[in-house]
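Hey, does this match?
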Amino acid sequence: MSEISQEIREAVSAVDFPIKLQFLFEPMRYKVLYGGRGGAKSWGVARALLVLGVKKPTRVLCAREFQNSIGQSVHKLLSDQIIALKLESFYEITQNSIRGKNGTEFAFVGLKNNVTNIKSYEGVDICWVEEAQSVSKSSWNVLIPTIRKENSEIWITFNPELETDETYQRFVVSPPENSKIAKINWNDNPWFPDTLRLEKDALFSRDREAYNNVWEGLCRQTIDGAIFAKEMTMADLEGRITNVAYDPIKPVHAVFDLGWADATAIWFVQFISQEVRLIRYYENNQETIAHYLAKMQSYGYVYDTIWLPHDAGNKTLASNGKSIEEIVRNSGYNTRVIERTPIADSINAARMMFNKCWFDRNNCHDGLQCLRHYRYDVDPDTKQFSQKPLHDNYSHGADAFRYIGLMVNEPRKPAKQPKTYQLPSSWMG
């Protein structure tokens, strides 16, 4: 630190940490901090990274599953800590990054449906994944091999939600080698404020289950306001979330929820006897319909019908005046458009068929997460759950599932002989 001013050296030396966070300065591939509110997890990690960045040039990638703007990242948290630690003369804070005088750099990125961008980050020393409870299996599978520099580390902070969430299973239930897993709660924070103590005690008196999750870091059985909570619980208890293999004797139905900026979600369904077998789920965003049709072909299924939402009949300039329905039909698929139906009716339809549903645990993992997290929105005035589902990153898969509930009542024609499908040639197609 000879090139660092005396003022900065003193500032770094004066930084204090709770005892349970001291391991952040020990070499380890995975450093996982989870637990309830008030434990100073994010605060401590931000401070530790800033201190390490002063001591030696460090390239830090700050990631989270969903980040549509820099305001959704830890940029502000780091900026605030730079001021609190009196490191303003060392770190330059720009709109989209933070840079140190010695070459240390902090970058910020969202993981969801951002594979190309993620793979472009090379030479990362430390990747900090914040709010990691939301990170999907597919995002972890892309991120982890990307952080491949010798002695690179992945730091993970999160407040648990469901025990079935990928992050909890991957790093708490079955942690990898060369990892340190620390549960950090409010009572591990020597600077826990009285204001939060009052909030904590009030929730303890009002809602014990919520208290255990929010403040003690215990997993919930269901998400507050979860629409399919009872149905998912029964599917788990009855063993209907298991290995569900593709039956080549029966055709497959593909049920879409379409999006562009939002996700496009697809459930792949077989009807065998009285069972509704969900054999695969796929989602992506900002991809053409040709991408999804090619993905469908790659699975090697024999298809019966492609079920599209009501807006699939709309003409779009991007597809040369053709609707998505026309593009899919012209590619050789049987298509049906599901009529617009009140959301409440489609939710009820999905609930009515739920006891017949069998889900493939692995191939439908992300879709199952959508169903577990699908919940009603909260009225901003009354603070009560509304009758309208929350539109978020989990709702697209749940919307497509609702359409299955509607289409099971539609007459299905006998399966036809396998077709040769033609991929569309237009940009949108």
User: Anything to note?
Assistant: The CA atoms of residues 12 and 296 lie 54 Å apart. The chain has two domains: 6-191, 229-407.
